[in-house]
């Protein structure tokens, strides 16, 4: 569904924001402007609660990474069923109002997670997020909520502004062709805790490792545009359980997921 441009200046987003997003492919908004949560302390408490979640089976999904022989939490997915405030944060009126204003389209939550980026946490080479999820959603938009400040030192996202408008060549292994990257300037997306950053599946980005001794966490909500598939998130997570299982994967659910 396409929404008339005249109705696009919704809560927290003005016409300049819409223009900036469409021109550059991203938008940063401070907590006071996006209004997705009442306070930073509240958001940080929710995230602290989720960090304590154990390796229960059949619930949320914990993924880990190995850093210098340490096994550290990297990502926790499929949150909203188990945390009502996080569900409201990512599926309440405010995120949809913001995203409708920027994109002019309706959308449905596709993926929800916390990227922990613990001290020493790995970075990522330049990439688009599109190839990772294109089997399910050819187009999507992401809201990243900074739980901690994001700096160059702790591995903030770095964007190539306006790359969302380019036909970026992707090789068979999902990487951006090196020739396209030559001479491109990556701009660090510096964020204060509580800020949000919105971008879509076609933004070229990279991340440095977290070189500090402090966590650099972010909550992500990813939204697809095919409103005829309200259960796409369920099918995506069922598929992911088999092909990209978390630390707390369980055989019984993986088997039943194949029958969906
Ligand atoms: Fe990415």
In short:
Belongs to the PhyH family. By secondary structure, this protein is of the alpha+beta class. The chain is built from nine helices and eleven strands.
Commentary on this structure:
It is a single chain. The protein is an alpha+beta fold and 260 residues long. It has one domain (5-257): Jelly Rolls (Sandwich), CATH 2.60.120. The chain has helices at 15-24, 31-34, 40-51, 84-91, 93-103, 130-133, 178-181, 232-243, 251-257; strands at residues 26-29, 61-67, 70-77, 108-115, 124-127, 140-146, 157-159, 187-188, 196-200, 205-207, 218-224. It has a 7-stranded antiparallel sheet with strand order 1-9-6-11-4-3-2. Strands 5-10-7-8 form a 4-stranded antiparallel sheet, with no helix packed on it. Strand 2 (61-67) and strand 3 form a beta hairpin. It binds fe (ii) ion (FE2).
């Amino acid at each position: 569904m396409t929404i008339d441009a005249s109705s696009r200046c919704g809560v927290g987003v003005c016409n300049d924001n819409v223009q900036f997003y469409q021109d550059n492919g991203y938008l940063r908004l401070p907590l006071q402007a996006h209004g997705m949560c009442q306070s930073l302390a509240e958001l940080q408490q929710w995230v602290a609660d989720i960090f304590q979640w154990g390796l229960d089976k059949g619930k949320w999904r914990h993924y880990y990474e190995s850093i210098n022989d340490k096994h550290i939490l990297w990502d926790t997915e499929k949150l909203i069923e188990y945390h009502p405030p996080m569900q409201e944060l990512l599926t309440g009126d405010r995120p949809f109002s913001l995203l409708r204003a920027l994109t002019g389209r309706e959308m449905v939550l596709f993926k929800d997670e916390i990227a922990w980026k613990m001290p020493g946490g790995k970075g990522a080479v330049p990439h688009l997020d599109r190839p990772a999820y294109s089997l399910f959603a050819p187009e999507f938009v992401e809201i990243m909520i900074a739980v901690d400040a994001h700096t160059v030192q702790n591995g903030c996202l770095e964007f190539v502004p306006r790359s969302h408008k380019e036909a970026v060549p992707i090789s068979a292994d999902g990487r951006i062709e090196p020739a396209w990257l030559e001479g491109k300037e990556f701009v660090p997306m510096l964020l204060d805790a509580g800020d949000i950053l919105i971008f879509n599946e076609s933004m070229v980005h990279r991340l440095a490792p977290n070189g500090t001794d402090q966590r650099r966490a972010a909550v992500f909500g990813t939204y697809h545009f095919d409103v005829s598939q309200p259960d796409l998130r369920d099918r995506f997570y069922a598929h992911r359980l088999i092909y990209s299982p978390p630390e707390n994967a369980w055989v019984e659910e993986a088997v039943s997921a194949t029958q969906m």
